[in-house]
Prior knowledge:
By secondary structure, the protein is an alpha/beta fold. It contains ten helices and eight strands.
Amino acid sequence: ECNSRNLIENFGWNAWMIDGSAINVLDAEKFYTNQIEEGTVIVHNSWVTKENIEESIKNLDVPVNIDILSIDIDGNDFWVWECIKSISPKVVIIEYNASFGPERSVTVPYDPEFDRFKKHKSGFYHGASLKALEKLGKQKGYSLICCDSNGVNAIFLKQDLINNTLLIEQEVKHAYFSIKKRMLKMSAKDQFDLIKKLPLTDV
């Protein structure tokens, strides 16, 4: 499910990967053995928090002007992106929680030990709404360009790069997709009804 795999395998991109699961890291090390030996891929085991993300970036010697930053941690995505200041990616790909709908500007409260299945058995309670991420993106100098049709990832581009492309900034109501897997089981309203009594932070 790595959204950078094609770039690494077929285009020879460098990559710095951080994952909180030791098992996932071992799998990645096996999968990218050749690239790791060549020094083009670095895999690091760390539970990502807003307190340690900047230190991890520094320790991994991630270049300041990287092309893509991908954030998918099923919980504190909003808070971690907010804290990343030492690098300036051209593109940010970040998971949004479509179960929060297109109109709410909310995120789960910060919890460094966040585990979405411990918070709610459905796994629907995590991350931030697309509207919340759009607001944060604008504060950090990024424009929402699109979301994937599975209703999982939002893609942001640095605002000063848009003029050099054919891309245009999108409104949330046009970019938003409901998450396909969950829609097979229940409506977006029913998804939110399951978790609406849990705490949310308006942003």
